């Protein structure tokens, strides 16, 4: 009976795992070696919150495999052939990777292996690159992509691990490294069990209100599944199967948000350069300012705009930021401080526990007006107006900006309007939003006229 290797990557779970089923089927009664490779190319590009999440998720996966998970550290193109030879494996099984680095890495591993590298399944409901227009070209606009994605459909969940699965235990494992210091950042529970529990709580308690509550950072109105999805502790197919019989506006909106994640992955598949370059190259000529004191103030949450500062402080304290606030803080950097989106995208990836290249960087391009289906160039989020609208009682600001905790209600969004607004050393506004909005529009219009 042949043994096989299951190389885990962004699929740190056992349920609904097509590659696990394929590995077990290929073993045909033999053993499956559960393997994870700590790849310095990925670790060095990940911020401390993501690394800690990954290490805790691996601990959970090791427990779920009854201690059988093997961890190795090194270049996968060197590690995989060594492990396959040590085991005498007949094949190596993976979930297909859609990212630019992952695709190149897997090609290198495939060349180095002496046995087949078998790709089964995808981290997405529909594999990136699978949904195209009638002429075979990719979609550039979300709404038609969403319709085609829905029409394409996706497989049913793969179910629990196959009965009779036997884990191989004859290959030595390295110890997991120590967790990086997060300077007080606390992460929620991590792993497949925690992901399923969070989904059930959200589904049963908040899903029906999601369409109304999702833009309110002062409420617990979002699923907060993004990091669980990032590491594949739960598959979007599992969520979509659960949503299939639900017709509420909240369920429809949540399904649409899952589709946005798939849309951005599809864009990155077709345009791998868009991870760092402008999808609309004319915007590279906009005439941005170099990051300076304003950029430092933005990163540290001391711009003098409470809604922006609350978001940036939430990011540093938790490794997460509400999506509405992500848009507002991004707009402030690009259109009030005139700093290129790449600087902000890198900062987010450093601190976000759910940092995902496709979703993060294309979200930034959306705000900057340079991406697919992007916000129009003249849309400049008003940081005060957004706060008053989506945090109407100021609770979100008071939670993350303690210097303003003495201001009641909406007053927390406009401390300059109150005699005691700066009583606790909250910083003054570093720019005038109206002036910088006008300057941003001038720069955008100059590019459009060329």
Please state the CA-atom Rg, rounded to the nearest Å. Answer: 23 Å
What's the level 1 CATH class of the largest domain?
Mainly Alpha
Beta content comes to: 5-15%
Strand order of the largest sheet: 3-2-1-4-5
CATH fold group of the largest domain: DNA Cyclobutane Dipyrimidine Photolyase, subunit A, domain 3
**CATH superfamily (homologous) name of the largest domain:** DNA Cyclobutane Dipyrimidine Photolyase, subunit A, domain 3
The total of beta strands comes to: 5
Q: Which descriptor suits the 3D outline?
A: globular
Derived structural class:
mainly alpha
Major sheet characteristics: 5 strands, parallel
Number of helices: 19
Order of helices and strands: EHEHHEHEHEHHHHHHHHHHHHHH
CATH architecture of the largest domain: Orthogonal Bundle
Can you give the mean pLDDT? 96
- Helix fraction, binned, reads 40-55%
Number of domains: 3
Termini separation? 67 Å
What does this structure look like?
The protein is mainly α. It folds into three domains: 3-121, Rossmann fold; 123-156 and 192-270, Serine Threonine Protein Phosphatase 5, Tetratricopeptide repeat (Alpha Horseshoe); 281-449, DNA Cyclobutane Dipyrimidine Photolyase, subunit A, domain 3, CATH 1.10.579. Helices cover 46% and strands 6% of the residues. The chain has helices spanning 18-27, 40-43, 48-64, 76-87, 100-112, 142-152, 192-205, 210-213, 226-230, 236-243, 249-270, 293-300, 306-318, 323-336, 341-351, 357-368, 383-390, 395-400, 433-449; strands at residues 3-8, 32-38, 70-73, 89-94, 117-119. Strands 3-2-1-4-5 form a five-stranded parallel beta sheet, sandwiched between helices. Helix 1 (18-27) links the parallel strand 1 and strand 2. Helix 11 crosses helix 16 (357-368) and helix 14 (323-336) packs across helix 16. The longest helix is centred in the middle third of the chain and has 22 residues, at 249-270. The radius of gyration is 23 Å and the shape is globular. The model has no long low-confidence stretch (mean pLDDT 96).
